[in-house]
Every structure is written in C-alpha cells, then in structure tokens.
Specification:
344 residues; alpha/beta; Spore Coat Polysaccharide Biosynthesis Protein SpsA, Chain A; 8-stranded mixed sheet; 10 helices; 42% helix
C-alpha cells in the first residue's frame, strides 16, 4: 500500500537535533492516522549526525536515510528525497528544530482542500537581523517579479502534491523558488503562518551571501519559467533600454559637434554612450545565443552522488541513488507523470 505522506528532512551538521526531531514528527503525525514515512538526507555532514540518523533508521520502520558523499547543497538533497518519497503528499522541513512538526496537520488540511503547494510563513521569526533582512528583501523582489506575493519564500517548511513535484528540477538555490516555479505552471499555491522556534543548536547557514546567490538564480528561474520559450526577450528587456540610452547620448553629442558647440572627445557623456551601446548590444546578442542553445539541446541536470542509502528497516540498499532526474540508477520508486490533479 502506497504511503499517504512523505516527510523529507535534509540536514547538514545537525547531530544534536536529529533524534529529537524524529520524536516530534512521530508525535505530531501519528494521531492523524495518516500513513507516513520520514526521509532524512545527509548533505555531507562532518559531525555525528549521519551516525545518529543511521541508528534512528535501524530502530524505526518509519525512517530511511540517504547519505551524500559531500555537501551538494539543499536543492540536491531535496531532489534526492523527492525521488525516494512514495507518498501522495510530500512535506519538507528543516532539521534544526526551528520548524514545529505540530504544524504538519495544518499543511495536510490545506492540501486536502485542493491546494497544490502550501508554503510556511514564519510570521514571528526568531532569527538575527543578518538573516531576516536579506530574507525580507529577497521575498519582496521575488514576489514582485513573479506576481506571487508570499511573505516567506525562504521557509523550508512546505507541502506539495506529488503531481506538482513531478515538474520540479532543482539545483543551485532553486529550492527557494519552488512556489514561483510551480505557480508559473498553473499549480495553486497558498501560504499559512507557522510557529518558528529560536535556534538552540548549531549555527545558521544563511545570510547575505545566500541573498546574492538567490538573486543570481532569480535570472535562472525567469529563464526557466516566464521566458523559457523566449529567452531573448529577457535579455532584450535589459539590453534595449541601455542601448537606447547610449544611442541617445551619442546623438546628442553628434548634434553638439555639428553645430560647433565645442569638442566632445573629452566629455564623460561620450564614454557613457559608447559603453552603453556596447553593453546593450552584448545583452541582446546573449539573448540570441540563448535562443539558439534552447532550440538545439535540452538543459542538462546537475549531478549529485550518494554514498549510501538505507531502507526503512535500516539495511544498506544494494543500489544507492546516484544522480537526479534523467541519468539515474535507483531503487527508489520514480513518481509517475500525473494525468491531472489528484486529490490526496
């Protein structure tokens, strides 16, 4: 019998929280009567977290473990967990105990009501300003670009229908854009406030550096969603105004030269006009190259390696998961392509 719920928990150096988290998850989900599994994905931890997780898997029929050889990032860890998941509903959450498992039944209610993707909103956050300020800026920019106003894109506490996950290809920092990615495909996305606890163990892995990476990946998401069939348009939106400003500056200087209003060779506006024209035309040319690439070959998926994978009874599986979507040998069941929205 297929499971109704899969909970995917990526972790990196969280040795002090794994066991407590599992206890809280079981306590929260068991009373609902919903059959479930918990999939822990070790993203190359260097502490005792993988050992504790392996012992946990050996003692619990509800848990399984995937070990990466090294740190490949949260997106890769989530991808591996999604491919291993067997539930009709998949919930993701962080392993640092800041997400409260008691919120899981509320996510299930939203999915059962017909929503495809439910994103958590840490309405009252217990994080330092170095983490909250970049997050607010990121949420504001992404919400405006995609027209999906969520308070907290960065929250790792989310729920998905399996049919929605079948259309995700995560790498880099794209896990933070999953609501926008699925919204662009027509899936219904909602948001619910969730309890957020202060971090009591370990250190946060997020900050201003992640904001910079996220903003760079924003262009990737734009290319793969709104402009996936017309990448030249995105670069043209940037390049044409800059090119136009450059030509306008050069035209103005040309008029001054023709009417004898003085030399123009030493004017800063001349250098601005030349650089603007060069940069703008390069952006347009980049868009044309992107069109050629899109038409000639599919985008290759990022690879990740799994050192070992443990089943629900704790035994080492003979064929561990090795790569993501298209080039994989795995014992995990691959989700079928949906024929339409399914009710959970």
């Amino acid at each position: 019998m297929s499971l109704s719920l899969s909970i995917v928990v990526p972790f990196f150096n969280e040795e002090e929280t794994i066991e407590k988290l599992h206890e809280k998850i079981v306590a929260a989900v068991a009373p609902t009567g919903c059959p479930f599994e918990v999939i822990y994905v070790n993203d190359g931890s260097t502490d005792l977290g993988p050992i504790k997780a392996q012992k946990l898997v050996g003692s619990s029929a509800l848990a399984s473990l995937i070990n990466f050889r090294t740190n490949f990032g949260k997106a890769a860890a989530l991808s591996a967990g999604f491919r291993r998941a067997r539930g009709d509903i998949v919930i993701t959450m962080d392993a640092d105990l800041q997400d409260d498992p008691m919120e899981i039944p509320r996510f299930l209610e939203q999915i059962h009501s017909g929503i495809d993707v439910v994103s958590g909103w840490k309405q009252k956050r217990h994080d330092p300003l170095g983490k909250t300020l970049p997050s607010k800026l990121f949420n504001a920019v992404v919400g405006r670009v995609f027209g999906l106003r969520l308070h907290d894109y960065n929250c790792g506490f989310k729920a998905y229908r399996r049919s929605a996950l079948a259309h995700l290809n995560l790498y880099g920092e794209l896990h933070r854009f999953t609501p926008a990615l699925l919204h662009s495909l027509g899936f219904q996305v909602s948001e619910i406030p969730v309890t957020h606890h202060p971090r009591t163990h370990g250190q946060s892995k997020y900050g201003w550096s992640r904001l910079i990476k996220g903003m760079i990946d924003l262009f990737t998401v734009l290319l793969s969603t709104r402009f996936r069939m017309r990448p030249a348009h995105l670069f043209a939106y940037i390049g044409l105004p800059i090119t136009g400003a450059g030509f306008a500056a050069l035209a103005y200087l040309t008029v001054l030269w023709l009417v004898g209003a003085g030399p123009i060779g030493s004017r800063p506006l001349l250098f601005f006009g030349i650089m603007a024209v060069l940069f703008g035309t390069q952006m347009i040319a980049t868009g044309l190259i992107a069109e050629v690439v899109r038409a000639s070959r599919p985008q290759e998926d990022e690879k990740y390696l799994v050192e070992s994978e443990y089943g629900s009874s704790g035994e080492l599986m003979s064929q561990p998961l090795q790569t993501n979507q298209h080039d994989a040998t795995t014992t995990a069941q691959t989700p079928p392509q949906p024929a339409g929205r399914r009710s959970a």
